[in-house]
Design goal:
Elements: E1 2-3, E2 6-7, E3 13-15, E4 20-24, E5 30-34, H1 36-42, E6 45-50, E7 56-57, E8 62-68, E9 72-76, E10 81-86, H2 88-92, H3 95-99, E11 108-112, H4 115-119, E12 123-124, H5 125-138, E13 150-154, H6 159-171, E14 178-183, H7 188-199, E15 202-209, E16 212-218
Parallel strand pairs: 13-14
Antiparallel strand pairs: 1-2, 3-4, 3-12, 4-5, 5-11, 6-8, 7-10, 8-9, 10-11, 14-16, 15-16
């Protein structure tokens, strides 16, 4: 399911209020992670702290903490259980949660102790559509095909000058890093397409909202 470019896989259950998801694995374990909404609200994560193995967790008790430059928040567990595994990758590379919240960026695996009762309080993606849409609108969430490392808001600036600034930004970034560029120049789309052809950089995503253009650019060279 997709709402305003934010994706919510149909094979998961959601605790919409707490922005977490649950996947029931084979056997006696479940996997827990956070939604694309929380990833977008938090911004680029710089630290992830998770509870140690064998910790007993009650439903909505925190499995750990996510931190960015503008956000510090818990990861409330959607079920009661015991922590069997934590995702070391998101501890070492917190941005993994931003880039792949439903796959590589999962948070923890638990052995649930009251799964039938707890899942009654969760909902499937189609049943969550209205509440997710309300949250996206409330928090002005924008989801893109690639999560930005940097933001550039170039309002009232001609696109030729914007591109000069973008080139300057890219020189200080690593290959693979992503820029979210916002421009109100009416020629922005044409200019950006021409720029990507010249520069060899990748225009991953774009959209227009009112008089604003949003571009997602990945440095590839």
């Amino acid at each position: 399911m997709e709402i305003d470019h934010c994706v919510f896989p149909d094979n998961l259950l959601y605790d919409v209020e707490n922005n977490t998801w649950l996947r029931i694995d084979k056997g006696t374990t479940v996997t827990v992670g956070v939604t694309s909404i929380l990833s977008a609200i938090a911004g680029r994560l710089v630290r992830t702290s998770l509870k140690p193995l064998d910790t007993s967790i009650e439903r909505v008790q925190s499995l750990g903490t996510l931190e960015s430059e503008r956000f510090v928040g818990p990861v409330p567990s959607p079920v009661t259980g015991v922590v069997l595994e934590i995702n070391d990758k998101v501890v070492g590379q917190p941005r993994t949660v931003n880039v792949s919240p439903y796959e590589v960026g999962w948070i923890a695996r638990l052995r649930p102790s009251n799964l039938v009762k707890d899942t009654v309080l969760l909902s499937a993606a189609p049943d969550s559509r209205i509440k997710f849409a309300q949250k996206i609108a409330q928090f002005h969430v924008r989801c893109f095909k690639a999560f930005p490392d940097r933001e550039m808001y170039e309002i009232g600036t001609e696109c030729t000058a914007v591109i000069v600034r973008l080139n300057e930004q890219l020189t200080t970034m690593s290959v693979g890093d992503v820029v979210h560029l916002v421009s109100d120049d009416p020629t922005a789309y044409v200019e950006m397409v021409a720029w990507t052809d010249r520069s060899g950089q990748s225009l991953v995503d774009w959209r227009k909202e009112g008089n604003l253009f949003h571009f997602i650019v990945r440095k590839v060279r």
